[in-house]
Amino acid sequence: MSATSIHITALDGIVNVNSLFTLAVFIGLAWNPTDPNNSLIDPTQLPGCSPGPKAAENLVTFHVYSFSCFLFSSLAALGLKQAIRLQAREAHHNHRMLWAFDLAHVNKTALRVGYAVSAVGSVCGSVFLMLALINVVQIKLGMLGCGGSRHGYGAVVPLVILVPCGLLIYVCTVFYAFTR
């Protein structure tokens, strides 16, 4: 497999993952956090643990930020992919080769910058999606600072451990690819 094909495949992967996360954001935005039947909090058992309107505002805000970042990342990856294909088409016409797609000469600096920009968008989108999910937990199970929200902590702690670990692996992999 040539380097150009690998780059195209990597960019396709970025776009596909961002599309899945964007779908999650839209599902999150379709949910109505102010619906009184949508909460698992019993105000009589946990007085003062109900989230205020700020939690719902943060939920929507973080979803919009997340969507913006994933869209930015996907558009950057698609633009980079299109540039590679245009370069391959130019190589094909200049050299009259059938396999020119695999032999396209790509500016490595531009490719690295494009990957970095797309990766930053994906990482920021993931962080904002995690923050939105923390607000979902607070709306459904009660504020985290509240004494009776042990279920909330049980939902949030794995989220704030596993997502950053996954992002660290992703960033290290992108950095490794960036230096090669």
UniProtKB/TrEMBL annotation:
Signal peptide start-end: none
Top-level taxonomic group: Eukaryota
Keywords per UniProt: Membrane, Transmembrane, Transmembrane helix
TM segment ranges: 12-31, 62-80, 113-136, 156-178
Record's protein name: Maternal effect embryo arrest 60
